[in-house]
Amino acid sequence: MKWFNNNAQWRESSAYFQWKSKVSTQWDGKCAVTGRVDQVDYHHAYSAKAYPHLRFHPLNGIILSTDIHQRFHADMGGTHIPCTAHDWNKWVKKHYPNRRQARMVNLILRYHLKRFFISMIISAWGMMYFLHQVLG
Question: Are 16 and 56 a contacting pair, CB within 8 Å?
């Protein structure tokens, strides 16, 4: 995986645009909370800055309306503060406690992240097995 020196570099990469396309397909191009299709942002469940190895994994993405995305990061202290799926989960429960769709988003996001981490564990195990076979 290519490592980038700054935020602008990776946000202009083809890998980023492919990630956005996969995330868009995954969430049907709609804000996961409101269902809006216009004025949407692509949010990393685990901060792209703090977790660069997760940056382009499609299961680490969610679509949010621009206003919800901005409010979330404002409440977290700004976009320069790394956030996680746990931060999002707490925030959405606080701001949308009765919204069924928001609760479903958290369930779906948790499902995606569990799938992601299971695939990472399987990949790591497979690599260890391969190295064991090659190196003896």
Answer: yes
Do the Cβ atoms of 60 and 83 come closer than 8 Å? no
Q: For residue range 74-83, what is the model confidence (pLDDT) as tens digits? A: 999 988 889 9
Q: Please state, in angstroms and rounded to a whole number, the distance separating the CA atoms of residues 96 and 41.
A: 19
Span 27-73, pLDDT tens digits: 899 998 888 999 999 999 888 888 888 889 888 898 999 999 999 99
Torsion angle of alpha carbons 25, 83, 2, 134, nearest 10°? Answer: -90
The CA R_g of the chain, rounded to the nearest whole Å, is 16
Q: Residue 88 and residue 7: Cα distance in Å, rounded?
A: 21
For residue 62, the surrounding DSSP H or E stretch is strand 61-65
Helices in the chain by DSSP H: which ranges? Answer: 7-11, 14-26, 66-76, 85-95, 100-135
Instruction: Please compute, for residue 80, the number of CA atoms within 13 A of its CA located in the half-sphere on the CB side.
Output: 1
CA distances from 98 to 90, 92, 115 (A): 14, 10, 27
